[in-house]
Amino acid sequence: MRGAIPSFFMSGDTGSTEQPKIFYTEVPQTEAHDTLLLEGKVKSVYQKADEPDTVYLHFHDKVTAGNGRRIDFPEGKGKTCCLISALLFEHLEHKRGIRTHYIDCPSLDTLRCNKLTIIPVEVIVRNIAAGSIVKNTTITEGIKLSPPIVEYFLKDDEKDDPLLTDDRVRLMGIDPEPLKEAAIKVNTHLQMLFSLMDIDLVDFKLEFGYDVNENLCLGDELSPDNMRLWKKGTKERFDKDLFRKDEGDIVEAYKYILTQLRQFV
Ligand code: AIR
Ligand code: ASP
């Protein structure tokens, strides 16, 4: 059952800064991590034999860039991304009524999620120009994109995730409209939330899939690995570009985002 939390405790109890300000269920890792379904670049997806419709997303202390060409193993990164994702999914699902794959957070580095058939399209929303749109067009970094734009990229590392057109998405047998509609909704809610933290949500990547009942759900993770976050009105980064550009400690930056989020979700 979506959102069911059979037993829980408030994380703040231990006083540790790594604890989430959310409820989470205790699931012994050895029990949860039965079969490895997928090994991603920074996450692994596991399944338990007796839970065919559920997956466990395990976040590693690992960061990659350039499609895995650069790699590092920063301590605490997995837990930080996991907890930020948990807080954002909880916010979107329970407070904003957006259907996501998130069920709960059984341990600090693991999300329990509904199993999805993933749509092989990465959906990008941009509020401010940065990254590939600056690299590949005449658009200047920092320009406000209002209304926000939505782009689609093929989810295929071997092909280096090329930019798609709406027509190409349709020819792939995928209707881009529901993806766009859902992505814009997510953008509205996340933008409002980050704005409370004095952060500009520059852009982000979403992945969608269908659950066993054929519902379109938001999947994957929601963390500074997949979004650009700038201190409001500046270009001070709190996201993976720090690693991509070798400009600073991503774990420090991600922990700052986590601490801020705890105050507002
Ligand atoms: N993204 C895209 N592919 C992988 C990731 N993580 C995210 C980036 C950025 C947004 O999508 O982190 O927030 C747009 O990326 P780009 O490179 O197209 O500018
Ligand atoms: N997601 C890709 C990687 O992890 C590209 C990037 O984020 O820079 O290598």
Distinct helical segment count: 7
CATH class value of the largest domain? Alpha Beta
Number of domains in the coordinates? 2
Rg of Cα set: 18 Å
| Quaternary form | single chain
Helix % is: 25-40%
Spell out the helices and strands N to C. Answer: EEHEEEEEHEEEHEEHHEEEHH
**What hetero molecules are in the model?**
5-aminoimidazole ribonucleotide, aspartic acid
Number of strands: 15
At the fourth CATH level, what is the homologous superfamily of the largest domain?
ATP-grasp fold, B domain
**Helix-strand category:** alpha+beta
Mean pLDDT: 90
What would you say this structure looks like, in words?
- By secondary structure, this protein is of the alpha+beta class.
- The protein has 2 domains: 7-116, Phosphorylase Kinase, domain 1, CATH 3.30.200.20; 118-249, 2-Layer Sandwich (D-amino Acid Aminotransferase, Chain A, domain 1), CATH 3.30.470.20.
- The chain is built from 7 helices and 15 strands.
- The chain has helices at residues 29-32, 77-95, 132-135, 166-171, 176-196, 241-244, 250-264; strands spanning 9-10, 23-24, 35-39, 43-47, 54-59, 63-65, 70-72, 102-107, 110-114, 117-128, 144-154, 163-164, 199-210, 216-218, 227-231.
- The strands form 4 sheets. Strands 10, 11, 12, 13, 14 and 15 form a 6-stranded antiparallel sheet that branches. It has a 5-stranded antiparallel sheet with strand order 3-4-5-9-8, with helices on one face. It has a two-stranded antiparallel ribbon with strand order 1-2.
- A hairpin with a 3-residue loop joins β3 (35-39) and β4.
- α2 packs parallel to α7 (250-264).
- The two termini are 23 Å apart.
- Residues 1-17 have low confidence and may be disordered.
- The protein binds 5-aminoimidazole ribonucleotide (AIR) and aspartic acid.
- 5-aminoimidazole ribonucleotide is lined by residues 122, 124, 131-132, 203-205, 225-228, 240.
